[in-house]
Design brief:
Elements lengths: L2 E12 L2 E12 L3 E5 L6 H9 L6 E6 L5 H8 L2 E4 L11 H12 L6 H7 L15 H12 L6 E5 L7 H18 L2 E5 L3 H5 L4 E6 L2 E7 H7 L2 E6 L3 H10 L6 E3 L5 E3 L6 H10 L6 E6 L2 H9 L2
Parallel strand pairs: 3-7, 3-8, 5-6, 6-7
Antiparallel strand pairs: 1-2, 1-4, 8-9, 10-12, 10-13, 11-12
Keywords: ATP-binding, Nucleotide-binding, Transport
Protein name: ABC transporter ATP-binding protein
Family: Belongs to the ABC transporter superfamily.
């Protein structure tokens, strides 16, 4: 696959405050990337630099092979984005918002109905946007980002503040756009469990530095599997684990459960030993670290 976007040693300084430090990033065509980091980590600044809404203090932006100002300007015309919320006219309908953007881009109105259908707003096209739910506004915002038929879509916190139904609608829409349009998508979110269900790669950023860029498959391999034990007598469980199973690789969680990492493939052995010691756990199962847990392991809480 080709590289649609590359950042080379990008730095950004605001008022002597370095917010991006030597960012190196390569995004391949047709993949969905999850951009993960705390507030202030540099996600939005990176997205703004890619789209031309901000400029790097130093370093280079490459879009589809172009590096000069003229070439980057042309390539940015094929980027769709929502950064810091969709720009919607609340006193206009969904269709009117899309028409206004079509005029701005100089494209035909013919694509409006297709976009409304894709984002699930055909039946709401005549309603003023101020009467939309937050989820509907986000879907319209994504639809507006598709007006210029982009090869590259950048979505900054598209599910932030949505209720579960709204999150599901936007998640399914992003997956549908990826499948049908084969576009490259860079999406940031604080709801990491949702990213896990929609992206191919994860980019972790902390304090302005990219600390990891891994595939979904690599993350699955790196997340630790463990035996999850629920029992009231945690002291006795820990005693058996340490003295009879000879393992220190376990951890008691805040909710009182115990995670045993070293013996994830030995559930039957653990259950038999518990039975021999009069332990009847309320629950025992095999699980694995979540994306949130892996993220916090990498950057600290």
């Amino acid at each position: 696959m080709g590289i649609i976007c590359e950042l080379k040693d990008v730095n950004k300084i605001y008022s002597k405050n370095k917010v991006l430090c030597n960012i190196n990033l390569r995004l391949e065509e047709g993949k969905v990337y999850g951009f993960i980091g705390r507030n202030g980590a540099g996600k939005t600044t990176t997205m703004r630099i890619i789209t031309g809404l901000a400029y790097p203090t130093s370093g280079q932006v490459v879009l589809d092979g172009e590096t000069d100002i003229k070439g980057l300007t042309e390539k940015r015309k094929k980027i769709g984005c929502i950064i810091e919320g969709p720009a919607l006219n609340l006193d206009m309908t969904a269709k009117q918002n899309l028409k206004a953007l079509c005029i701005l881009y100089g494209v035909s109105f013919d694509r409006i109905e297709k976009i409304l259908k894709l984002v699930g707003l055909c039946n709401e096209s005549g309603k003023k946007v101020k009467h939309f739910s937050l989820g509907m506004k986000q879907r319209l915002g994504i639809g507006m980002a598709l007006v210029n038929d982009p090869k590259f879509l950048i979505l900054d916190e598209p599910i932030n503040g949505l209720d579960p139904d709204g999150i599901l609608e936007v998640r399914n829409l992003i997956k549908q756009i990826s499948r049908k349009r084969k576009a490259t998508i860079l999406v940031s979110s604080h709801i990491l469990s949702e990213l896990y269900q929609m992206v191919d790669n994860y980019i972790l950023i902390n304090k302005g530095e990219i600390i990891e860029n891994i595939t979904h498959e690599e993350l699955t391999q790196k997340t630790q599997r463990y035996v999850l034990i629920t029992d009231k007598d945690t002291a006795k469980v820990k005693h058996v684990l340490k003295n009879q199973l000879k393992t220190d690789d376990f951890k008691e969680m805040e909710d009182g459960t115990i995670r045993v990492y070293e013996l994830a493939g030995e559930v039957l052995q653990i259950m038999n030993l518990f039975a021999d010691n009069g332990i009847d756990p309320a629950g025992i199962s095999v699980s694995e670290d979540s994306l949130e847990e892996y993220f916090f392991k990498r950057i600290g809480r």
